[in-house]
Structure formats: structure tokens, C-alpha cells
Amino acid sequence: MATDVRDVEVKLDDNVLAALPEGGKVVSVRPSGMSDYCNTYRIQVKLPGGGSKVFFQKEAAGEEGRELMEAAFTSESTTYEFIPEHVPRPITMGTYKSRPDTHFFLADFIDMVEDDIPDPDAYMTAVAALHNRSMGNCPTGQFGFPVNTRFGDLEQDNSWTGTWEEYWTRQMKDFLDKEDAAHGGELHEELERLRPLFFEKVLPRYLGPLESEGRSVTPCLIHADLWPGNVKYMNDGENVCIYDACAMWGHNEVDLGVFRNPRYPLGKAYLKEYWKHVPISEPEEDADSRNSLYMLRNQILLSVLYPHDTKLREMQVFVSSMRLLVDRVQDEEAAQSNPQQSPHL
What share of the chain is helix, strand, coil (3-state, %, to 5)? Predict the structure, then answer.
């Protein structure tokens, strides 16, 4: 057990100290980064043999806080299992001895370069390593995760499911329900028109072929929140650190949706780099549409998290993406029923 030698009135909780190096002395605790959903700290410990080590801690209160810490620990632990060179080592999660309603997650602290977005090679080498190493290693062989994880503080239903189309359809229905609730049930006429077409036409069209005519989707571990805020260069300026996963076992291409989102300065160069390491799922000709489909998840959840940012919905950021997919499928259907008619572009 470590000891807290700081000259402060409120010291680290005993259960946190028990998880730190035996005989270590806590010499510094200060806020680390920004989070809307929990408190974060950087803990410096002087080691008994000389030198020091730094740790990262999250804390949150109540049952929601416990679930948030469990989601973080399980996501980071599973991701670390496959790419330990890119993920801060998770140590433990637990509950404060002094405050039984407060819960924590503890990991190694990694110094990172805050301002630079890693280039496509560094960024996608780490992502591809996660997918390639975990492919086919899901403990159940199904789609889901042992716990419900969090995008921000939004719960993601990860109930184990046998087919990818069923899993993703359930998630999209849940996400759109959350988006409605975040906006107070305010009717969005265009979204209401598109929603049934999206579920009746778009999802079967682009997910069904992945699991038909002898094809199948092999679950791999996906991070599910690979925006640039969660992928940084380590201090060497060459290797990247990936953190804050809301992990699930799913179709690897889900992780590529964020790279299409115009909200982030990423784009085609990152996708091209990824495909150097991982083959495109069949049917390959649907890859671009699947990428748009998976981008929708990120756009919808951002609209849930930030309902007062009107451009995320009212300027139809995700509604326009949904319309593009619906139009694409309807044009394809029209072309098949009337081969003489050129599809709308």
C-alpha cells in the first residue's frame, strides 16, 4: 500500500492507495484533462527504490458512476490485451472506502503530444493492429460485449447477438430513440420521413449482404470512438496512444465511420492507409456506403450529447447522411425495375 505524504486535509482514499505501488509515497495529485462526465487526476508516486511513476485516475459517484467506471475498465483492459503498446495499462477499478457511493478507475499515465493529430500511417497502424490481432478471438463468437459501454456518458446496449445485422439494427434504433429524447421529442419532419426507410431499406441492403451467399462477419474488437481527441502521439512523436474506448465486438469497419465525419480533419488518406493492412469486407462495392452508414452512429450520438448545438441536427448533419443512403438505395431499386432509366446522381 502506498501512503499519501502531501500536506493536504483530504488525502487519497485507502482503496486507491492500496492499488498504487507498495511502499510508494504520493507526492502530487492534480486534475488531468477535461471530462464532462467524471473527475480525472494525475497522481505522481515516489517509488521506494528511487524514481517515480505517474498514474491516471477517474472517479464518479452513484450507480451511474459505478457503471461508467466498469465500462472504462473493461473496455481499456480488453483493448490493452491486444495492443498493449498503444493503450495505457489499466490497473483496477473499485469503490472508495471513505465514500461508498464514489467509484474509481486507475491506469498508468502516458505523456502525450496534445496538439498534433497523428499522421495516417501512425494512426491506422494502431487501429489495424487492434482489428487484426482480435479478429476471431471473441470469447463468445457473437457481437456485443460483457458490459454496456459508454459513448461519453451514453449507455450502449451490448447484449450478445448472433448476427451483425440484428445487432446493428438494435443499436441504431436505440441511438435514434436517445436522439429524440435529447431533443424533447421535438418533431423533425425530414427525419420522420427517412427513419422507416432507413430501417426497412438501408440497413438490410448494406448489412444483409455481409452475411449472405456464403459470406460472414467475424467479430473483432473495435474501439468505437476513434476521434482525434482519443488518439495522440506519445512523447516520442512516432507511436500513438489510444484510450477512452467504448469497446464492442463487431464489424471492424465500424471504427472507420469516424474518419468520414466532416467534423474531424481526417478523411480518405486515413481510410486508404487502413486498407493497406486489412482487407475490405465483401461485397467490396458496398464499402463506401457502409462507411457512410457507420459514420451515422458518430453523428447521431454527438447530436444526443450536444442537443443545444443546433447544427448537429437542425442543419441536418446526420439527417443529410441518412437521406443520402436512402436516396442511394431507392435509386438502385428504380434502376433495377427500369434498366433503361439512369440512376439519380
Answer: 45, 20, 40
